[in-house]
Amino acid sequence: MVVSIVALIFAVAGTSVASVATISALSKKEKKQTRKIAKNEVNKAAPGLSVLSATTSGNSDQLGGLSLRGLSQWVLVNSAGAVIDSSGGVTATDLAIGRYRVSFPSSVASCGLNANAGTASPASDATPFSDRFVMLGRSTTGANDVQVKVADETGTASNNPFFLTVQC
Fold first, then answer.
1. pTM higher than 0.85, yes or no?
2. pLDDT 10s digits, 24-63
3. What is the DSSP secondary-structure string of 43-76?
4. I want to staple 117 with a disulfide (CB 3.0 to 4.6 A). Which of 28, 77, 130, 139 is the partner?
């Protein structure tokens, strides 16, 4: 058993040394070819990506001329329809028991929507999971608006906090 463990250690150490030796033994031409292959693979996977180096990038905060902040928007709304926190520029209106309209600063007409019922306070181990359901719909009031309905476990509309995210 001891002999097996010692053999395993030497095998792993030998592999590590061999791999470092192999990489450092590459000629300049081989290193250049390796970098070119890697660059081509990145260009195939992400055409148009412009990265200056591994530590800095020329357009990491832009995508198609849009800020990444505009691609993902979110809001935390309390049971009274007030915005507790958001990605910025988001408003909410309490329409009726369990019904809300959330307005975002830009169109969300072709974006993905996701919502969860929960608590409007920071979560802790003592925070129980919510037995509420959140239903979402496109609003007829505008491309920036989302209709939200919150219901309890019986399906009855109820005023409860929710968290809504929009991915464009």
1. no
2. 666 777 767 767 766 666 666 656 555 555 444 454 455 5
3. HHHSTT---SSSS--SSTTEETTEEHHHHEEEEE
4. 130
The C-alpha atoms of residue 8 and residue 45 are separated, in whole angstroms, by: 38
**What contacts 24+ positions apart, CB below 8 Å, involve 137-146?**
138/109, 139/101, 141/101, 142/103, 143/107, 143/108, 143/109, 144/103, 144/104, 144/105, 144/106, 144/107, 144/108, 145/101, 145/102, 145/103, 145/104, 145/108, 146/101, 146/102, 146/104, 146/108, 146/113
Q: Residue 4, SS3?
A: helix
